[in-house]
Amino acid sequence: MAGTSVLQRYLSVGDVARRCGIAVSAVHFYERKGLISSIRTDGNQRRFHRGVLRKLAIIKVAQKTGIPLSEIGDAFDKLPPNTVPTAKDWAKLSSQWRDDLNERIDQLTRLRDQLGDCIGCGCLSISDCPLRNPADALSEQGAGARLLEPVSD
User: Which pTM was predicted?
Assistant: First the structure.
């Protein structure tokens, strides 16, 4: 009977996918990326500890905010191994991503606010460019959009 209670802590890949609202292929993908792990039964079937549900929830939230999987993996690597992430772990993870998220929000806000003016390429092809880019000074910094990121002195 002890073996039964141990197995009850584990879920099939289909159960994990259903409980998380993702495709089975996504569960396999996250496992291949090393973000989650499984064990194999005697019949060679994957079984996932119930704690994987919390990790997948963290992955989904982080991805919705634009955090790349590589950064999610790096953050998971800093957590204690073979444990279920706690609320304290989430606080640590989210605080690591907060500054990056705030910077991206600031960048998107600047982009939104400048979108109707100029793309900041330094080409002087738009009549407003001489006002936004006098004497085509931005071209000295090279090709590409320059007004999208803050200019450092």
Answer: 0.67
